[in-house]
Amino acid sequence: MADTAELFLAADGAPRLRRCAVLFLDLLGVREMARSTEASAHLAAVDRAVRSSYRDFLDPASELPAAVFSDTLVIAAPIRSKQLEPVTVLGLVTQGALAQLGLIEQGLFARGGLAVGDFHIHDNLIFGRALVDAYERENKDAVHPRVILDKPVEAMLRERGAGEDVDDAGSFLSCDEDGWVFIDYLGPVFDSYEDARPRLKAHRDALVAKLAQHSKERRHWEKYRWVAEYHNDAVRTRAADGAELLVPADGMTWRFSSFSP
C-alpha cells in the first residue's frame, strides 16, 4: 500500500495507531498436515493455496495492508472517517468472503474474526486492540469454519447501516442461532456468477470429502457438519431446483455402533 508509512507512522517516523477494521483469518487443518507422513505434499498444497488466495492482499499496491505468518492472514482496512466506518467494514467483509472462497477452491477452509479499533501495520510489525479482538473472536468464539463479527461491529452496522448507502449490508452477512453474525461467503457465488451450480457442486463435494475424512473424529467432524448445514441452507433459500446440490443427509449423520465385548 503506497501510503502505509503516512498512515501508520508519525512525522518523526515513530509508529502510530490508526482506527481500522481488521480481519484475522486462520487456515484449518494445517497443524495436522504438518504432522502427517505426507507433510511435503501438504506444504506444497498450502503454499499453492496461500499464493493463489492471498496474492492480491500482499501486493504492495493493495489498498488494504496485510500480513501473512504461518497459516494466518491479517487484513486491515483503514477507516478514514467515522462516516465511512460502515462502508469500510462491509468492504472488508466482501474481501473476507472472497478470500474464503479462494481458499476453499484449493481445498482449505478457514476460521476468523473481524473487529474494529486501533491498529498498526508497517514493516512486518502488526499490533493493536483490533488485532487482539479479531484474534479472540477466531480463537474463542468462531468454533466452526466461519468468520464472525465482533459484537461492537455488529452493533455499529445495525445502528448505522440504514441511510449510509449500505443497503446491501446483509448480502454477505448471516446470523447463526448461537447469536453470532458471520461472513456469508457463498453470497458472492449467487451474486457475482451467472451459473453458480459448478461452484456450489465443488463446495458440496469438498464438504462431503471433509465429513468422510473426519468420520471418526467427532470434534473435527462437527465443524464441517456446520458448514454443510450452512451450505444446504444457502442452496435451499437461493438456488431454485437445487436439490442435487445438497450435502446428503446421511453424510451429515454421526454413526454409532453397539458394544461387543
Commentary on this structure:
This protein has 261 residues and is α+β, with helices and mostly antiparallel strands. The protein is 46% helix and 18% strand. The strands form 2 sheets. Strands 1, 2, 3, 4, 5 and 6 form a 6-stranded mixed beta sheet that branches. A two-stranded antiparallel ribbon has the order 7-8. The longest helix is centred in the middle third of the chain and has 21 residues, at 85-105. The termini are far apart. The model has no long low-confidence stretch (mean pLDDT 87).
- Series of secondary-structure elements, N-terminal to C-terminal: HEHHEEHEEHEHEEHHH
Helix/strand-derived category reads alpha+beta
Major sheet, described briefly? Answer: 6 strands, mixed
**Multimeric status of the protein:** single chain
Let me know the number of strands.
8
Terminal CA distance: 65 Å
Helix content: 40-55%
Compute the CA-based radius of gyration. Answer: 19 Å
**What is the residue-mean pLDDT, rounded to a whole number?**
87
Separate helix tally = 9
- Anisotropy-based shape: globular
Strand content: 15-25%
Spans where pLDDT lies below 50 across 5 or more residues: none
